[in-house]
Each structure stands twice: as structure tokens, then as C-alpha cells.
Amino acid sequence: MTKKDWKPQYSFSRFFFNYFDNLGSLTLINLFMCIPLFAFAAVMWFVSQNLGYVSGFIVLAAIPLMSPFYAGAFYVSSRLTRREDVSFKDFIKGMKQNWISFLINSIFVYIITAGLYITFSFYRGGFGNPAIMCAFVVSLIFTLFFLFFEFGLMTMLVTVDIKISDALKNSVILVAGGLSEHCKALVSLLLVFFAVYSSLALSVGALAAIIILSVMCLLFLPMLSAYIVVYHVYRAVERIVISPFEERHPKSVKPENDAAETISQEKLAELSVGDPEEYVYLNGRMIKRKFVVKMLEVHSQKNS
């Protein structure tokens, strides 16, 4: 049995086994992701040294800047979760296939995050007012919902070939149906960042803190953060979106199904290119690409 034949197995040990089994490739990906990240940090440092202040809105520009790279990181994380071997080529493939959707999403994330930044700045110092406290709680709930929504959306975009509009609808469903998985992802991320913060707090001097943070980024932080999200949220995607469809419509993914006759050959040919085990979105359904290939063969035979 090959790794592609195994269904994802979720456990604490499996999480680390998947990661360390591909440590060399993941470290190379981290190093590559740090190039634009460090370049952006250097520009921010230069601006702060010359102007004395850098607006938070400028710092948030890192979100769209890093979005194409996280498209590759989330794609690699999806493969890791399915226990498939990964390489730097997979990272580049993920960037090429998903950078547009991730960039569009990052603009949306930038706007929402900037709005939340303004909102929480307004609440500062006003917690004695009940109205302010109520508004703060509502904003906090919305922030959590938005964060969980993004977890599901980014995982969906690299797991199935799906339009952004359809991914948006499914991501809302995932927030409610996969709440426990989203909470586990958030808690895991908080634990990692707490460990990072503790290491920086225990360091002697600002220079030592910068060096420690830089080493952590170079070795594991960018890739690990993406993998944590996908590893937890992928099981919700599999349970709520993929598995129920396969159970309810087992015949709909077979080549003999009449659906092949209602779909154009051009559409089938377009969707048939890529990893046979990857899920694609076809007529509102998620099926593996290998079944699309079979449907294309049936379609071609009937038209020949």
C-alpha cells in the first residue's frame, strides 16, 4: 500500500511524523519563504529609522505580499496531511496553481484586518463603559469567526479545484460544522507563538531576540503555521464536504454515469489535468480527478 492509498490519520504522533519525515524539503521551503519576509522587514526597519514611525496599515501589507508563498505552503501542507511525500517542486506547483485566489483573498483579509485594527484601537481605554465592552465582545466574536472562516477557505482552495464563490459558501458551513477542528488549530497556533514569545522574553538583549526569531523563521515558523491549520481543518473538509458526497453519490463518480453526457468535453479535458488523487469541483460536487479522466474517456468514445 502506498502513501497515496492511505487516508489521513490524525494524532499527535502522526502530526510530527509527517513533518519530520519531510524535514529537508520543509526547511528549504521555509528558507525560500523568508526571502520576501526578511526583505519586507528590512524595508520596514529602514523606514522606521528614517521616519521614526511606520503605520500599522503599511505593516499589514505583508499579508498580500506573502499570500502567493502561503498558497504554496498550504498546498504542501495538504499533501503532508494526506501522508504524501513533498518537495520544493510541490511548493512551486502550489504557488502557480493557487496564487491568484490567495492574492484575491489576501486583499479581502487586509481590508478586514485593517478595519479590526481601527476598531480595537477605538476600544482602548474605554472598557469601563458597558456599551464599549459589549461592542468589544461582538468584535472579538467576529474576529474568531473571520479567523476560522479563513482557515477553512485556504484549506479548501488547495484541497479541491473550486471556484472562490463556492469555497466561500463551504467555508461558512465549515466554521459551524468543524468548530472543534478550528479551535484545535487556533490553540495549537497559540501554543507555538507562546513558545516563541517565551524564547524571546528569556533572551538577553534586543539583538539576541532578533537573531532567535530570525532562526525560528528560517527553520520552521512559516511552514509550521500553515501545516498546523491544514492538519486540523483538513479533517473537517474531509468529514463535512468530501466524505458525505462520496457516501451519498457513489455512482456519480463512476465513468458509466450519464453525467458525462451533460458536461462538455472541453470542460472535462480542462479538469482532467493534474494529480489524479486531487479533488475537483464539478457541477457542484467534489470528485477525484481520476474519475474526471474516466468520464472524459467515456465522452470521447461516445463521440467517436
For this entry, give a set of tags.
3-stranded mixed β-sheet; 77% helix; 13 helices; globular; 3 strands; single chain; disordered N terminus; mainly alpha; 304 residues
Explain this structure to me?
The structure is a single chain. The protein has 304 residues and is mostly helical. It has 2 domains: 12-243, no CATH class; 249-304, no CATH class. 77% of the residues lie in helices and 3% in strands. The chain has 13 helices and 3 strands, in the order ααααααβααααααββα. It has helices at 12-21, 23-51, 56-59, 62-81, 88-123, 130-159, 164-177, 179-202, 206-219, 221-248, 259-262, 265-271, 289-303; strands at 160-161, 279-282, 285-288. The chain has a 3-stranded mixed beta sheet. It is globular and about 70 Å long. 28% of the residues are buried. The model is unreliable at 1-6 and 249-261 (pLDDT under 50).
